[in-house]
Amino acid sequence: MIEHIERLLKSRIGLEAESVGRTVIERAVRQRMAALGQQNLEGYWTTLGGSPREQQALVEAVVVPETWFFRYPESFNALASLAQERHTQLHGGRPLRLISLPCSSGEEPYSIAMTLLDAGFSAEQFQIEALDVSDKVLEQARKGLYGRNSFRGDALAFRDHFFHEQESGGFLLDERVRTCVRLRTGNLLDPSLFAGEPSYDFIFCRNLLIYFDRPTQVRVLELLKRQLQEGGTLFIGPAEASLASQNGLQALGRQQTFAFRMAPAQPTISVPTRVPASRTRTATVIPTRTIQPSRPRPASRTLSAAAPQAQTADIWSEIANLANAGRTDEARQRTEQHLQQNGPSAAAYYWLGLLCDAAGQGDQACAYYRKAIYLEPQHREALTHLAAHLEAQGDQTGAQRLYRRAQNPEVGERD
């Protein structure tokens, strides 16, 4: 039955089930069955088949998006200045229109509102919409009560300014910020989602496209482009920059902002369906700690037994030994088991990418590398291997961008 669910996710909503692993799918199915009060897998399958909303809810359970206030702070710094420029261009003729989707529990759209308020905008000068398929996370967003996990890093002055610490625990967002955001249920894959809606000056859609297959990525990206005002800005995730640059969008060139606008000359969209035949792989995987960013194409893959934390080194060594012994299926099962027990990690997704490469599954490998970069934007090995794939597909610009990031962590996303 799980195989049927995987095929449905692929055919209906474009989710690459293989890119997250069967154990993750199974865990998500159990979570959704519990949320619906269903005990029988066949019954859930019936519900799933007839409910696009439940299909998207299952996607959300699979993806398990992680969010916090002012994630990618450079993007919000850029938004403040870009919004001022846009407001001047409009001569105050209408409010700025912004949207965050999917908005999850509200940290991103509320960060947008705080940014604009701090930049001197009044609440009447902008309109923020926030969409998500999950009523549960939207209800949490409406309450505006957040725990410490929603606040990361040391730059927390905004918490003192816009939040009220509660005696019962958590921090309550000020009403003046909450009233700036219109929260509503919406499915980005619903073709009628924006029917009758005016376009937007700023769209935030970050770290979602990496979970879809390429045709769905392009379809969703085209939808977002149609909803973008002329001269408007699209903010995406770090691992999605290459996809945007290949499909008619141009980076603003502001470091670490991942902000794009329509390119002056829009190229024809190309949807590669397979890795070029000239790319060959060897069945033997050689463990090494050395990365060669200048390698022209991923003719063979090198597996690293290194792990970011000492306590997990033995796991990756075990997986390397299995892979080098030709027991790649066992290596993959062990990695997926680690994901199930410990949650998402850049190291695990990087290893799944390497194992897919060893099996000749290039598209799936790219999806895993993007996930690793999503969790750890400067993951050198994932950046290098993904760059090699892009180069083999003819995307020299995207490849060189990733190579630069891999060689110099201070470079960031300049292009």
TrEMBL record:
Database matches in PANTHER family: CHEMOTAXIS PROTEIN METHYLTRANSFERASE
PROSITE patterns xrefs: CHER, TPR
Protein name: CheR family methyltransferase
Native species: Ectopseudomonas alcaliphila
Placement of TPR repeats on the sequence: 346-379
Region (Disordered) residue spans: 395-415
Stored InterPro entries: Bact_Chemotaxis_MeTrfase (IPR050903), CheR_C (IPR022642), CheR_MeTrfase (IPR000780), SAM-dependent_MTases_sf (IPR029063), TPR-like_helical_dom_sf (IPR011990), TPR_rpt (IPR019734)
Domain CheR-type methyltransferase as annotated: residue spans: 1-241
